[in-house]
Amino acid sequence: MNPNSQNPQDPGHHGNGGQHAGNGHTPLDGTGTAVTGTGTSQDQRTAAGEDAQTLTTRQGHPLSNNQNIRTLGNRGPATLENYAFIEKISHFDRERIPERVVHARGAGAHGVFEAYGKVGDEPIEKYTRAKLFNTPGKQTPVFVRFSTVGHGGHSPETLRDPRGFAVKFYTEDGNWDLVGNNLKVFFIRDAMKFPDLIHSQKPDPVTNRQSGERIFDFICNTPEAMHMVSFLFSPWGIPANYRQMQGSGVNTYKWVNAQGEAVLVKYHWEPLQGIKNLTAAEAEAIQAKNFNHATQDLYEAIERGDYPQWELLVQIMSDDEHPELDFDPLDDTKLWPQDQFPWLPVGKMTLNRNPENYFAEVEQSAFGTGVLVDGLDFSDDKMLQGRTFSYSDTQRYRVGTNYLQLPINAPKKHVATNQRDGQMAYHVDTAPGQNNHINYEPSSLNGLKEAPRSAPDHMPQYTGRVMRQTIDRQNNFKQAGERYRLHEDWERNDLISNMVGALSDANKVIQDKMIELCSNCDPDWGNRLADGLKAAASNKQAKGGNQHNESKQKQAVAQAEAQAHEATPY
């Protein structure tokens, strides 16, 4: 982002996600069962209560209500996290017959998640009926994609940038995607601002160059971003590799138990290899030798049998507004204090197999925050609500309308839908014995039918006006200041150095606003930034003239010409 910084194998889970096609071979499903071109002999494993003609989503989630969207009361308005509806209608929108915008640079691996059967010391069924968690030792296949957020597909892995940490669980009830980052907070709290945030980090639309001025122009007018700044411009902004970094769901979700009762939950991946970060100078030295170092590190560790592992921990909070806190628990620019909401272990993930083909598995892997199984649910987190539409819609545009038929994305269980056609349809989601003439529901002519209800829906109650307003408890500076003070001396030094480097050529109004915001977080932070910017300006003035008064980027441009070796035409 910063332009001035730099276990056991799953024998049935094949390298391309469980199915092979082409080369004259019959495609296989995740268990080795033959799959015909029409899909009528697909893997027909079913979850409890399902049969072969149970209607599902493309993610393999049993669909128990195909008549109504999710609304505030039965008259509306509709909520944005209507995942089953969005999947259905957006596929319909594309029934007639590009690189990721964010998270373009990535690496991935297959593995397994093993449940502890408890949350901390308590039975997990007290909080969630999600089956993947409920039995000690239960194993669920996973695919994980690590990434950098803002830069292109072949950018160096030493650049300052949040790292994506996305996990696809192929559960018995269909897919669950836990889509997050290495850092546990984010820049913004409302999805309306996401395109603006990313535009500020992307290249200038005229010069096609990134700049610290653009990034901090957005940040200095977005005070909620200061907590993220306290991490991103410190060594935490450049993880040493993918194996030794944390992961986080960032957003607040819900767990729902068998009675339909819900709690708020946050997810944390803790690497059992430990955590390591790099300073800007260290990252630049590595980049000079290898700009693919993190991808190489992950691949070679798995090849030699040094399987990386992460423990999954959760924080749990009752599902209410928590007026006793000085922040809103749904605000993804905030951390939940561990002393009040302890980290509780629920399972362990082991990555034990590399992809057989990067494009088929890593590049075409597609994740969405709305991909939840029974027992997991959405909170009212405004960023989560916006991401739930955006992520899966991006996949339909980028990979194609039928992206969920690709082996890496397809659930490893029964799928039967009324979705048809669209670009690159691989097979038809029909069930054995289904009347193939019927691609709608309800029907009396042997079509698909709704899944039986196994537990009550979670039905939160709301009272309030529909509006467009910022949340009440913003508290933009407290946790950012706490993080600044928690940094070790070398981390604070690197934070100041990186910010000075990015801001030294920025307009003075941006510099002044950033000094003010940093001072609001901690006076020492603001004073040190102001001193650093003064020293940088004095240094430029002392060297005099435009010839010496250049940024690092301009110096590099001049250096390339001055130090280059002349050659004779041929």
Which key terms come to mind for this protein?
alpha+beta; Catalase HpII,  Chain A, domain 1; 14% strand; metal ion binding; 570 residues; 14 helices; Catalase_AS
Describe the 3D structure:
The chain is α+β, with helices and mostly antiparallel strands. The chain has a domain at about 105-200 and about 240-405: Catalase HpII,  Chain A, domain 1 (Beta Barrel), CATH 2.40.180. The protein contains 14 helices and 12 strands. The chain has helices at about 85-95, 195-200, 210-220, 225-230, 280-285, 295-305, 360-365, 380-400, 480-485, 490-505, 510-520, 525-545, 545-550, 550-565, and strands at about 105-115, 120, 120-125, 140-150, 165-170, 175-180, 245-250, 255, 260-270, 310-320, 345-355, 375-380. Strands 1, 4, 5, 6, 7, 8, 9, 10, 11 and 12 form a 10-stranded antiparallel beta sheet that branches. Strand 2 and strand 3 (about 120-125) form a beta hairpin. The longest helix is centred in the last third of the chain and has 21 residues, at about 525-545. The two termini are about 40 Å apart. Mean pLDDT is about 90; it is low at about 1-40.
SSE map:
Layout: H1 83-93, E1 105-115, E2 118-119, E3 122-123, E4 139-148, E5 163-171, E6 174-181, H2 194-201, H3 212-220, H4 226-232, E7 247-248, E8 253-256, E9 262-271, H5 280-287, H6 293-303, E10 309-318, E11 344-353, H7 358-363, E12 376-378, H8 382-398, H9 478-486, H10 489-503, H11 508-521, H12 523-543, H13 545-548, H14 552-563
Antiparallel strand pairs: 1-4, 1-11, 2-3, 4-5, 5-6, 7-9, 8-9, 8-12, 9-10, 10-11
